[in-house]
Amino acid sequence: MGQKGIPDWLNSSLWSSNPTSYAGDRFRGSSPKAPTETLKPESPTRAPVPEPPPARRSPPRSPRPQPAEVPRPEVAPPALDPSPSSRFSPEEISRQSQLLAELSKKVINIEEVRRLAWQGIPDGAGIRSMVWKLLLGYLPDDRGLWAQELEKKRSQYEAFKDEFLVNPSEVARRLEESAGHQYEELEGGNSGLLSRSEITHGEHPLSLGKTSLWNQFFQDTEIIEQIDRDVKRTHPDMHFFSGDSSFANSNQEALRRILIIFAKLNPGIRYVQGMNEVLAPLFYVFRNDPDENNAICAEADAFFCFVELLSEFRDNFCQKLDNSVVGIRATITKLSQLLKKHDGELWRHLEITTKVNPQFYAFRWITLLLTQEFNFADGLHIWDTLLSDAEGPQETLLRICCAMLILVRRRLLAGDFTSNLKLLQKYPSTNISHLLYVANKLRGPSAG
Questions:
Q1: Backbone φ and ψ of 70, nearest 5°
Q2: Alpha carbons 193 and 198: distance in angstroms, whole number
Q3: What is the pLDDT of residues 326-357, one digit of tens each?
Q4: CA distances from 402 to 95, 333, 375, 397 (A)
Q5: pTM for this one?
Q6: Half-sphere exposure of residue 286, counting CA atoms within 13 Å on the CB side?
Q7: Is the dihedral of CA 413, 418, 422, 425 positive or negative?
Q8: Separation CA 287–CA 297 (nearest Å)
Q9: Fewest beta carbons less than 10 Å away: which of 14, 26, 84, 180?
Q10: How confident is the model at residue 55 (pLDDT cuts 50, 70, 90)?
Q11: Strands (E), 197-242
Q12: How high is the pLDDT of residue 316?
């Protein structure tokens, strides 16, 4: 044990951030952060990563590439994944080859995929899309079932689009055409126009009935407008999501459709501001799948994986549960307790001495799954760990958030309310491998 009841591995300068100044505002916290705070030079290039615990098996689902309705643009902005193999460490090269070998098997060992992906999926391997789909249970472990399962899911998504994205006027027109056709047959070829008495009350734009398509349409308008605003603000620093190109516009439209369909299928939650930030990494990774057919079907795949991911965090988005034992406030309290357990001195300084309420910074950390605290590439690395942990993403997320506090403990202990709040709301750049290493250490017993 080191000073003040803190383990030796935590007292090491390896985990102390250099208290130099940091800079750079972010647009809604989403633009890449300038490398402002780094770990001490003594730190190794990659921290050792302990073996993760045995993984749980995800419920299988499956895929098959399906021809797309919209051709992929001829020139797409480059993905973040590709990078020269010369920049890979021997560990990353070994892990990549192990992952490729496992993914090539007829029946994939999901636990082994979790073990390897938990340490980070090497950039440039082009397999993150496949691995995430396996980890989220969208693809079953039997490759022979992929084609059938993907066809079923992608067809189901097309049906959702037909059902939930059609304007009521189009539905009314179809009803009129159908009824008019029947009327023609009965009347021997008259005009086919519906008489006024045949237009039901529920089909009238001024109807306030609960079953009225138009009434539901007007109720949805406010949510759709919010989705539109948020989608346009998604990662404004990335050409993939932002700009005037047809490629960026098509990606924004895909995000918009996914979020609208999700809101209509989940009336208990609907749409909560910020869901676009959680969806963005999924869609980005799937849209950059090196398999052309999979890339074209990224929208459908991202929808189902988004649903699966949010099922783990559903209660954090439900406002009615905010003050319950499963709501977002309870989750933030768990983070506070985790910090108190592992670093009582830092907990007392933050919450008792400087009175920094964890809700001031942790609400965004938790609800947006850290998508706003790091640059996009580092965020993908963090998600590799989140999605692959056997205990589920929420517990892993809380450990990572606690590790974020511990990594800047020296600056926090020296700071007051204002400086600490500023630091935590604009978290400094850090070594992601070290961060995940510390988070994994927090699985162990408390610091005392």
A1: -115, 120
A2: 10
A3: 678 999 999 999 999 999 999 999 999 999 99
A4: 27, 12, 19, 9
A5: 0.74
A6: 28
A7: positive
A8: 8
A9: 84
A10: very low
A11: none
A12: 72
DSSP reduced 3-state for 17: strand
Can you give the pLDDT at residue 93? Answer: 87
Instruction: Look at the domain 3-17+321-441 and name its fold.
Output: Cyclin A; domain 1 (1.10.472)
Q: Whose CA is closest to 330, among 427, 398, 422?
A: 398
Residue with tokens 């400087």: 354
The conformation of residue 109, written as its DSSP 8-state character, comes to: -
Q: Any bridge partners for residue 39, and if so which?
A: 17
Residue spans per domain, the chain: 3-17+321-441, 85-142, 146-165+204-315, 168-199
Neighbours of 326 (CB within 10 A): 13
Short-list 173, 174, 54, CA closest to 114: 54
Do 85-142 and 3-17+321-441 fall under one CATH topology?
no
What are the structure tokens assigned to 123, written together?
Answer: 């950039």
Residue 174 makes CB contacts below 8 A (sequence gap 6+) with none
| Count of positions (residues) in the chain | 448
User: What span, in angstroms and rounded, lies between the C-alpha atoms of 403 and 15?
Assistant: 9
How far apart CA 254 and CA 247 sit, in angstroms, is: 11
CA distance 75 to 52: 40
Amino acid sitting at position 188: G
Structural class in CATH, domain 85-142: mainly alpha
115-124, 211-220, 308-317, range with greatest mean pLDDT: 115-124
Looking from the CA of 275 toward its CB, the CA atoms found within 13 Å total 31
Radius of gyration in angstroms for the set of CA atoms belonging to the chain, rounded to a whole number: 25
3-state secondary structure 241-310: CCCCCHHHHHHHHHHHHHHHHHHHHCCCCCCCCCHHHHHHHHHHHHHCCCCHHHHHCHHHHHHHHHHHHH
In angstroms, rounded to a whole number, what is the distance separating the alpha carbons of residues 114 and 251? Answer: 29
The phi-psi region of residue 370 (left if phi > 0; otherwise alpha if psi is between -120 and 50; otherwise beta) is left
pLDDT digit string (tens) for 251-286? 999 999 999 999 999 888 889 999 999 999 999 999
**Which CATH entry fits the domain spanning 146-165+204-315: 3.10.450.50, 3.40.50.720, 3.40.50.300, 1.10.8.270?**
1.10.8.270
Q: How confident is the model at residue 395 (pLDDT cuts 50, 70, 90)?
A: very high
| Lowest-confidence pick of 16-25, 309-318, 423-432 | 16-25
